[in-house]
Each structure stands twice: as C-alpha cells, then as structure tokens.
Amino acid sequence: MQQHENLFLFLALLPFVSFLYSSVGHGGASGYLALMSLFSFAPETMKPTALLLNLFVAGISFYYYYKGGFFNLRLFLPFAVTSVPLAFIGGSIELEASVYKKILALLLVFAILKMLHVFGKESDVIKRLKLWQGFIIGGIIGLLSGLIGIGGGIILTPIILLLHWGKMKEAAAVSALFIWVNSASGLVGQLNSGIILEKGVFVMVGVALFGGIIGGYLGSKKFNNKKLRYLLACVLIIACFKLIFT
After folding, report:
1. Which segments of the chain are extended strands (E)?
2. What residue ranges of the chain have pLDDT lower than 50?
3. Domain coordinates of the chain in residue numbers?
4. Which H or E element spans position 146?
5. Are 27 and 57 in contact (CB under 8 A)?
6. Which of 237, 177, 150, 210 lies closest to 16 in space, CA to CA?
7. I want to staple 208 with a disulfide (CB 3.0 to 4.6 A). Which of 18, 40, 49, 181 is the partner?
C-alpha cells in the first residue's frame, strides 16, 4: 500500500464512506476516489483500488437488497449486456493524469447532487424500459466506469428514477449488481493492461467491508440518515475542488 502520513485517518474514514454508499445500493467508488484524491493517492493506484473495493461492498449491498426482494432482473439485463464489455475496454485504457482528474471531478458533481437529492426522486408511475434504451445507457455508463474506476451506480440509479423505470429500492438493487459486474469487468481490463494490485489494498478491503455490511443491512431495512449524507456531500465537494485546482 502506498505510504501516507495520514494513512490511519484515511482508513478510519473509509468505512464511513462504504457505509453510506452501501446503504443506498452503491459500491462507493466515487466516494473512495474522492477520499483517495484528498490523501494524494496516485491516479494509477486509485482506479484499480476503487474497483476492487466496489466488488466487495457492492456485492454485500446487492445481497441484502436481493434478500429483501427488491431485485428486478428484467430491468438489470438490458443495461448489463452492453456495459460489461465496454467496462472491460474502458479499464484497459489509461488516461493522462490531468484528464483523469478533471473527468473524475465532473462525476463527483453527479455524486454530490445525488447525495443531496437534487434529482432522482421516486415516482408512483412506473414505465417499461425499452431494450434499446438499456443498451445505449448501459454502454455509455460501462465505458465511463472502466475509464474512471467506478461501477456506474451513481449515474444509473438517478437515471432509473428520473425516467420512472423503477422504485427507489428496486433501483438500488439493480444498481448494486450493475456496479459489481462493471467493477469486475473494469478490474479485469486493468489487470490485463499490466496493472498490479498492491498487497496492502486488501487491508482497505477489510476496512471498507465493515462499513459496507452495516450500511447494506440498514439500507435494505428502510434506513435513512440525511445528516450523514450531507456530511459525505461536503467531503465530495472538497475532493472535487482539489481535483480541479491541483
């Protein structure tokens, strides 16, 4: 694991991030990337680390939402068909550091708006997702996921809610598995391109899992804590400015 003066503080904050994200069916990659940027991790370390953390936390989150009966396979498949291969392609591509940081900053804005509930609210009227819509949206999010090192749930969830394709917890369940398959595909693409995971990253996995297990369980049981979400939004805002201006 890369050495940092404040490594213990980083590890203390990590389960807080995984807790909040898993409570809404997300793996937390945008949060992990934001946190790593605040602690000055190298971009080449950030991407595979976030994808690996996603695999474990999103997997736990999906388990709880699936167990709660919220998963909709028909809604999931059209997105996954195109997202998985494109996430692999995206994971195989290495962006120049400054470009990577600017794109990540834009995605964090999306994450901030989602955390603050600016968009993506539930509707009583549910519309049927058309295959071509799922293919296009899934493909775009998949490619972006591989390029940046996220699972794409922070984008997919509000889209599902905005276009009335599912309820809140249904969107969370679909997004959790969507994040998992994209993260796996993107990570394989990373490893295929020659990236090697540091052994110390598995310490981070264990720490993140602690928060993810609690968040996934409480989130599937109607947990909601606005103050914690606002606090996370503040962290994302700080990270966003750091990425843009450094």
Report:
1. none
2. 2-3
3. 13-245
4. helix 131-148
5. yes
6. 210
7. 18
